[in-house]
Amino acid sequence: MELYIPISHLNDFIFCPLSIYYHWLYGGLSTRLYQELPQVEGKQAHEAIEEKRYSTRKNILQGVEVYSTVYNLCGKIDTFDVDEGLLTERKKHIEKIYDGYVFQLYGQYYGLCEMGYRVNSLRFYSMDDNKIYPVKLPDEDTDMRESFKNTIMNIMSLDLENYLQTNKAKCGRCIYEPLCDRSNV
Mean pLDDT throughout 132-151? Predict the structure, then answer.
């Protein structure tokens, strides 16, 4: 059986591959032990999607699991308007659109496409300030599409045992930094 890469790991991997390891290591423990306010608020913001109470419209898919056999990815979408072909990823607060965010949206996009849906547009929605951020489709942004593919290849070939984070700012913002034996802080 082939293992799929969780779509959420695309952003986590770019931030720091060690964060994925620590997430799995501490995954069985209470999140109160290591999550900070932004993570708690982000989880609360997605409750309406998880409980499928965001919308009662039949053409809005919410919290549906998607799989891409082409890219070996699995995960859940936030919302997809089937009639419009509009895929939306909701975030509690967006200050900047990181590549990892876009890659998560691409993973959802490819999963929906492989399931037979027609996806015409992608966007992020920032709940705190009610802002919408359109994202180009992968075929409209070949540099980002290639970076997406390279990130997946890097995930599959990572040598975690010898990985060292060189970015002090990332370590300084990591919720797992106090637990990490390779912190750069």
Answer: 98
